[in-house]
Amino acid sequence: MSHATRSRPPTARLPVVAPILLALLGLAASAGCSTTTEPAPAASPVHTAAAPSPTASPSASSTPTDAAWAQLMTPMNEKALALLTLAADRGTEPRLRAFATRLHSGQEAELGRLRPLLARMGLPDTDVHAGHDMPGMVTEADLEAAGAAEGGAFDRLFLTGIRDHLRHSAQVSRSEITAGARADAKQLAADLVTAREAALTELEGLPGAAQALG
Predict the structure, then answer these.
(1) CA triple 87-85-5, angle to 5 deg
(2) Which long-range contacts (CB under 8 A, 24 or more apart) does 6-10 make?
(3) What H or E segment, with its residue span, contains residue 30?
């Protein structure tokens, strides 16, 4: 589904980690939000006993790229789960419903690794991208449209939306593999890429996918 028609507040600003990730992907122009300049990471990040704020610094073994990836992938999976839940129940084809059910389980398992990773990095388990239309992110508007659609129209919305999610999350994860520093984050990113490639291959073979995805 097209993201070009969605309106975005002109004064919205991305979290401080987002410009790094968008620069890696070459998507700063298409994201539609203003960006901030990423400060150089401090040589000795200061950690306190207080709960980390949404802008908490990553641990010394992390880079801003690691933080940007983990803080984007977590809400991407969380938002995709809502669409997958709808598809598992409302898809018109048994194969589509089975695909959505399996992918839902896989994305939940990934969250079971992403959330502890955030904790190890000293980052909050919150959506720092809330209110921003990030490429590949399932939005509330997407969910509203899917909820109102029926039959083949629902299938097309699901196939397009989940295809975009899989493609962009794979692209983001490849950037983490290339530019990240943490071994645990890079390994998880590699596992996500493998899972996304397999899911995209299966998606393309689902009934109605050729027509829905062009």
Answers:
(1) 70
(2) 6/133, 6/139, 6/141, 8/32, 8/33, 8/132, 8/133, 9/131
(3) helix 28-31
pLDDT in tens, 130-163: 656 678 899 999 999 999 999 999 999 999 999 9
Q: Which two tokens stand for residue 112?
A: 């079971």
Domain residue spans in the chain?
Answer: 62-213
Looking at the structure, give the CATH architecture of the domain made up of residues 62-213: Up-down Bundle (1.20)
For 189, counting Cβ atoms within 10 Å of its Cβ (0-12 exposed, 13-18 middle, 19+ buried), the class is buried
**Alpha-carbon span 162 to 168, nearest angstrom:** 10
- Asked if 73 and 114 touch (Cβ cutoff 8 Å), the reply is yes
Residue 55: is it exposed, middle or buried by C-beta count within 10 angstroms (0-12/13-18/19+)? exposed
The answer, yes or no, to whether residue 118 has pLDDT greater than 50, is yes
Q: Is 16 helix (H, G, I), strand (E, B) or coil?
A: coil
Q: Which of 76, 94, 97 has its CA nearest to residue 166?
A: 76
